[in-house]
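quick one, 109 residues, struct below
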Amino acid sequence: MLPGRSPDGEHICPDCAGITTLLVCDRCGAEAERFRNGACARCVVREDLESMLKPNAPPDLRLKRLVGILADAGRPESIYTWMNKTAPKELLTQIGQRTVPLTHEGFDN
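---
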């Protein structure tokens, strides 16, 4: 990650730019902007999805895959924004409560 700029306008590393803000995720160690409580957006999305979908209680590989796919998206900040809107949040919560089946019909309803 090259968040700094040289006097010539070139991208430079945090040390060379004199940036003292920590730019490493406390959870996964990735070089990324810290999004919430020292964690990057990807880790926050994963944590929030696991809280909503409860893929381990009882264990459900489909839900684990869904968490992984959404958390590994190219822009996890966009997933975070989407999943915190009313309708998606409701749907994800109901899926986690196992009241909505993981089927096309379940999603359509």
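Helices lie at 14-17, 41-53, 61-71, 76-83, 86-96, 104-108.
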